[in-house]
UniProtKB/TrEMBL annotation, chain A:
The gene is Pold3. Residues 353-363 have a biased composition (Basic residues). Its main location: nucleus. InterPro entries: POLD3, POLD3_sf. Pfam families: CDC27. Keywords: DNA replication, Nucleus. One of its GO terms (cellular component) is delta DNA polymerase complex. Residues 181-197, 262-286 have a biased composition (Basic and acidic residues). PANTHER family: DNA POLYMERASE DELTA SUBUNIT 3. One of its GO terms (biological process) is DNA strand elongation involved in DNA replication. This is DNA polymerase delta subunit 3. It is found in: Nucleus. It comes from Cnemophilus loriae. Residues 203-216 have a biased composition (Polar residues). Residues 123-216, 229-379 are annotated as: Disordered.
Automatic annotation (TrEMBL), chain B:
The gene is Pold2. One of its GO terms (biological process) is DNA strand elongation involved in DNA replication. GO terms for molecular function: DNA binding. This is DNA polymerase delta subunit 2. Residues 196-411 form the DNA polymerase alpha/delta/epsilon subunit B domain. Keywords: DNA damage, DNA excision, DNA repair, DNA replication, Nucleus. Residues 49-175 form the DNA polymerase delta subunit OB-fold domain. Residues 1-20 are annotated as: Disordered.
Length: 379, 461
């Protein structure tokens, strides 16, 4: 038990934690309960070394404490560093404890410290789509794991929707890689989205391909009751596809990026994808299904849905204007949910009928995918 | 200086829990400005020859050297170019030095077929008694002999020699001088105690983990978690932390995986990936509490040639979110609270160490200051970008604190110049080896080392 561990676990100031440890030691020793406690102290002070005065900070065992104190000419501070039942051979367990506790509390590691720095604030990223970066960073990293591991589970809508978006973007990006005659803007957008996805996705794609197969098998066997099932196998697939082309892409930017941007691009791409029949139904349906489960209902969304309903009725060339508007949306969670709602709103009608088609389409896709997977393995 | 203030409340924390403990606000950064713009390379093109950098270096330092020569040897001495030399005439010549060394690793020798030699293993020093000095200017070169210390000087130094040409074509040197310290900068230092922590050679990613606890202790002291109240309030006066290079250890540089077959190394990651993640966590802890400047070093993932460009912020995703993190170039110059800092991660000093008889890092540091150039060996033995417009390594303004990282041990000296310059020379030791960092007090330009230690199985510390 180090003072830092105590401080984080109990949520107290570090100085209080040190005092608590001291108090505990004193009380236990007075009680003479027989349990031997070994204490390490932190000693800091001035020491004459090599001709100049050197400030030394050291962690010492209790038995060496007095020796160290006598070595120092001026003692700046002494306090309890840690308490343990067993005698420590060296200080690595202390380091490990501290490392672990700091790792679990990385985002607010200065909360209990004695010094507050006014200048140290997580910077708000320059463009709006990046607004979630700092706060959502750790969450986003956990998302792929949860999405991959869960089957049929219904996490909050906001989380899966970025996931789905990523998946969709990945698919589209893969398509874009094979279709160089895309417009310059789109290609750039795809590359960007692809690049941005790659790190987030590659984290998830660390899930071994076996998971992919498991999902596929499950999907093949079980009836399509929950949408997650369809979406999840597609995701690892898409991730796989993304991982491959991402190798060709330049150094990807970090994952905490532009949910909204991606979502914006996604709608753009989704519309373009509608030209591609094979993937269109599935993708659109998938987003449909998400939407159906989306509990959020923002007024804004309704407005947009109406707009897009009129737009999507054409289902021709994607007007780029809605997407920049969407990109500028201030907060990401409403935005992705908003966008996902756009799709289903337009295709809700055919959702039911397409479900059966989707099964078939998906199966064939799975087959191809497995083939791809096999080929990938042998290649 | 750190400790005296803290002494009274030293034992304060050996007591039962008291009332709400105080938190100290960090001393705010009053004046910071980054002056290292000329070290940042925009678009880089390597299609130019390196001869240009010598030409601009000579052209840049010639006026200053001529002035120094006149002030030293009289106003009426003859300043000649090598092409105008006459035998027997005492004159002064300004030129670039070239040291012809037999042991110098030469790529031409390596690939020359007649020699058929195995490439030379790296030696600690390449000097030999048979080395010769040659002075070059724009058009000609001439061998030097006489009152000049061949072993001490290195290639690329611009200097002025005073002497005469002999009949056999050599130049007999009677005296020589360097550019000397540049004109001093006005002193605007703070009036109260402000500290800057200099550390280098964190060496993350190394196989041995001994320095990890010390690194954690360093972070704890700076962020104010360690120490009694007095010490914490002193730590609140640390306005900045400068990490001068070698954040990753040399172990991360192993390129064995290139030689192995692809199927064996498919799943292995470069060791630097883990090390950078660890670095990111440590920087995050530091950045949430104090402004940090991170300079790249020899083993860090950035370009090899000087000036090394800043580490890319996408490698440090967690820490980059904080505005207190600054990723800066390798020779780094900045104004902190009115005090001008200039420093490198040590590659220039260790390169001079290899090719000169000077053994002491502090001595070499002082010598570069006197020679007016941060790294004279730059294109010759140390990788450098082919500058052609101007040489950014020439010292044009005298810094107040001049440091170099990754030195074998800590040394510091307050150097007084002739025109009233005061420079604090600091050699920052390698933290992974010595567990020592430096605290510079900006108020009175003093420096104190700070050592951290844990306890091992058999250590007596």
């Amino acid at each position: 038990v180090t003072y830092k561990w105590l401080s984080y676990t109990l949520g107290v100031h570090v100085n209080q934690a040190k005092q608590m440890l001291y108090d505990y030691v004193e009380r236990k020793r007075k009680e003479n309960s027989g349990a031997q406690l070994h204490v390490t102290y932190l000693v800091a002070g001035n020491l004459l070394q090599n001709g100049h005065v050197c400030h030394k900070v050291a962690v010492v065992r209790e038995d060496k404490l007095e020796a160290m104190k006598s070595k120092l000419s001026t003692i700046a501070s002494v306090h309890v560093y840690s308490i343990q039942k067993a005698l420590l051979k060296d200080s690595s367990p202390l380091y490990n404890t501290d490392y672990d506790i700091v790792k679990t509390n990385l985002q607010h590691c200065s909360k209990f410290s004695a010094i507050r720095c006014a200048a140290a604030v997580p910077r708000t990223p320059p463009d709006a789509p990046r607004a979630p970066a700092a706060s959502q960073g750790p969450q986003r990293q956990r998302e792929p794991d949860t999405a991959g591991a869960v089957n049929g589970h219904g996490p909050p809508a906001a989380k899966p929707s970025p996931q789905q978006h990523k998946g969709i973007m990945g698919m589209f990006a893969a398509k874009a890689a094979s279709r160089p005659q895309d417009t310059h803007k789109e290609a750039k957008a795809e590359a960007k989205a692809e690049a941005k996805e790659a790190p987030g996705v590659s984290a998830a794609s660390s899930k071994p391909p076996t998971k992919n197969n498991i999902m596929n098998n499950f999907f093949g066997k079980a009836a399509m009751n929950k949408l997650k099932v369809s979406s999840v196998p597609e995701q690892p697939k898409e991730e796989k596809e993304v991982v491959k082309p991402s190798a060709a892409v330049a150094e990807p930017e970090p994952s905490p990026n532009t949910v909204a941007e991606k979502a914006g691009k996604k709608t753009e791409s989704a519309r373009i994808q509608q030209k591609d029949k094979k993937s269109k139904t599935k993708r659109v349906d998938r987003s449909d299904d998400e939407e159906e489960r989306d509990p959020e209902n923002v007024k804004k969304k309704r407005k947009r849905i109406k707009q897009l309903q009129s737009d999507s009725s054409d289902e021709e060339d994607v007007p780029p204007s809605p997407t920049p508007e969407e990109e500028r949306a201030p907060s990401p969670p409403p935005v992705p949910a908003l966008k996902t709602e756009l799709e289903p709103a337009s295709t809700e009608v055919s959702a039911g009928g397409r479900k059966r088609k989707r099964k078939r389409v998906l199966k064939s896709k799975m087959f191809i995918d497995e083939e791809e997977g096999c080929m990938g393995k042998t290649g | 200086m750190f400790s005296e203030q803290a002494a009274p409340t030293a034992q304060g924390l050996l007591a039962p829990p008291s009332a709400e403990p105080p938190t100290f606000p960090r001393v705010p950064v009053s004046g910071y400005s980054d002056c290292s713009q000329h070290f940042q390379l925009g678009e880089r093109s390597f299609s130019r020859q390196y001869a240009h950098i010598y030409a601009v270096r000579l052209a840049g330092m010639r006026p200053g050297l001529e002035q120094r020569a006149r002030s030293r040897w009289g106003n009426d001495i003859a300043l000649r170019k090598l092409s105008e030399l006459q035998a027997g005439e005492k004159c002064c010549v300004v030129g670039t030095l070239f040291k012809a060394m037999q042991l110098q690793p030469s790529i031409l020798q390596e690939i020359s077929e007649e020699h058929n030699l195995v490439p030379q293993p790296p030696l600690p020093k390449y000097i030999q008694p048979s080395d010769e000095l040659i002075l070059e200017d724009e058009l000609q070169r001439i061998k030097l002999e006489g009152a000049i210390d061949v072993q001490r000087l290195v290639t690329g130094t611009i200097l002025a020699v005073y002497g005469s040409e002999q009949d056999d074509g050599r130049f007999l040197v009677e005296d020589h001088c360097f550019a000397d310290l540049p004109p001093p900068l006005p002193w605007n230092g703070p009036s109260s105690d402000r500290f800057v922590l200099l550390a280098s050679g964190l060496g993350l990613g190394s196989v041995s983990g001994e320095a990890l606890l010390s690194t954690q202790l360093l972070v704890d002291v700076v962020t104010g978690q360690l120490g009694a109240e007095g010490e914490q309030s002193c730590a609140a006066h640390i306005t900045r932390v400068i990490l001068a290079g070698n954040l990753l250890s040399q172990n991360t540089q192993s390129r064995d995986t290139i030689n192995k077959a692809k199927y064996l190394t498919k799943k292995t990651q470069a060791a630097s990936v883990e090390a950078v993640k660890m670095l990111d966590e440590i920087l995050l802890q530091l950045c949430s509490s104090v402004p940090v400047d991170v300079m790249p070093g020899e083993f860090d993932p950035t370009n090899y040639t000087l000036p090394q460009q800043p580490l890319h912020r996408c490698m440090l995703p967690l820490a980059s979110a904080y505005a207190t993190l600054r990723l800066v170039t390798n020779p780094y110059q900045a104004n902190l609270d009115g005090v001008r800092f200039l420093g490198t991660s040590g590659q220039n000093i260790s390169d001079i160490f290899k090719y000169s008889s000077m053994d002491d890092y502090l001595e070499i540091l002082e010598w570069t200051l006197l020679a007016g150039h941060i790294s004279p060996t730059a294109p010759d033995t140390l990788g450098c970008y082919p500058f052609y417009k101007s040489d950014p390594f020439i010292l044009t303004e005298c810094p107040h604190v001049y440091f170099c990282g990754n030195a074998p041990h800590f040394q510091s000296k307050l150097f007084q110049g002739k025109e009233g310059q005061r420079v604090l020379l600091v050699t920052v030791p390698d933290f992974s080896a010595t567990q020592t960092a430096c605290l510079v007090n900006l108020r009175d330009l003093t420096c104190q080392p700070i050592t951290f230690s844990g306890f091992g199985a058999d250590s007596e510390d």
